[in-house]
Automatic annotation (TrEMBL):
Gene behind this protein: GSTO1
Coiled-coil region(s): none
Keyword Oxidoreductase: yes
BP term (GO), one: glutathione metabolic process
A Pfam short name: GST_C_3
Organism in which the protein naturally occurs: Astyanax mexicanus (Blind cave fish)
Identification of the protein by name: Glutathione S-transferase omega
GO molecular function: glutathione dehydrogenase (ascorbate) activity; glutathione transferase activity; methylarsonate reductase activity
PROSITE patterns to which the protein is assigned, alphabetical: GLUTAREDOXIN_2 (PS51354), GST_CTER (PS50405), GST_NTER (PS50404)
Keywords: Oxidoreductase, Transferase
InterPro entries hit by this protein: Glutathione-S-Trfase_C-like (IPR010987), Glutathione-S-Trfase_C_sf (IPR036282), Glutathione_S-Trfase (IPR040079), Glutathione_S-Trfase_N (IPR004045), GST_C (IPR004046), GST_omega (IPR005442), GST_Omega/HSP26 (IPR050983), Omega/Tau-like (IPR045073)
UniProt record similarity statement: Belongs to the GST superfamily. Omega family.
Domain GST N-terminal, chain residue ranges per copy: 33-112
């Protein structure tokens, strides 16, 4: 038996709904002329895909998933149970954030977010691979600190990796990682920097002037501004997440 949850067809500017959890009914077919993204409001990985959907002006609806009590029907769509997942009008699904983002840029018209130059595209994918090694530190430092354990080695590692990221901008002499305008690589990196203040990691940006300037520019990007949360909202969710009781529906 499933519990019916009201699902409203959303466009790119609409607010999301409360999470679907275990025991809920699956939503109906994807509305004509739309995509559906299975997401979680505070998930940085899902935010990547929502940024690309927003930037390209794609019509979509959002179905948020309770990642602690996942609906049975969602695991049939994505056996990994992670977000984001894209569902197409024909019922086919695509998941993993970089893959969904690249698909959207290749299939949908409008501003191209990925470079058409094969070498530049490869450079950005290499940069994303390097950044993927930074992401775990954003979680490990607060988690280790909350246990009262020594975080000095983790702090040193994070500072070194952020310094290397800063050097990329210094060497490129551009405003953004992909050039002088926001591109795919910027949207793929941004979500964790939106959270540095809430996760008490902002001090690790000291000494990375170009990276700091990049964060300030990204905060003014219309796409980022359209879907970003305030630091205090991120903090409330992150605190609940760290306590083992994530409040996915905070603020709704």
């Amino acid at each position: 038996m499933c519990v019916l949850i009201l699902q409203i067809s959303l466009d790119t500017m609409a607010a999301t709904q409360k999470c679907y959890a275990k025991g809920s009914c699956a939503p109906g077919p994807v509305p004509e002329g739309h995509l559906r993204i299975y997401s979680m409001r505070f998930c940085p990985f899902a935010q990547r895909t929502r940024l690309v959907l927003q930037a390209k002006g794609i019509n979509f609806e959002t179905v948020n998933i309770d990642l602690k009590e996942k609906p049975e029907w969602y695991l049939e769509k994505n056996p990994q149970g992670l977000v984001p997942t894209l569902e197409l009008p024909n019922g086919k699904v695509i998941y993993e954030s970089p893959i969904t983002c690249e698909y959207l840029d290749e299939v949908y018209p409008g501003k191209k977010l990925m470079s058409s130059d094969p070498f530049e595209k490869a450079q950005q994918k290499m940069l994303l691979e390097d950044f993927s090694k930074i992401v775990p530190l954003f979680y490990r430092i607060p988690g280790t600190k909350s246990k009262g354990e020594d975080i000095s080695a983790l702090e040193t590692e994070l500072k070194e990796k952020l310094s290397k990221l800063n050097k990329v901008l210094v060497n490129k002499k551009t405003k953004y990682f992909g050039g002088d305008s926001v591109s795919m690589i910027d949207y793929l990196i941004w979500p964790w920097f939106e959270r540095v203040e809430a996760w008490q990691l902002k001090q690790y940006l000291d000494g990375t002037a170009e990276l700091k300037n990049w964060t300030l520019r990204m905060q003014e990007d219309p796409t980022v501004k359209a879907i970003m949360f305030k630091p205090e909202d991120h903090k409330v969710f992150f605190d609940s997440f760290m306590a083992g009781k994530p409040n996915y529906d905070y603020g709704l």
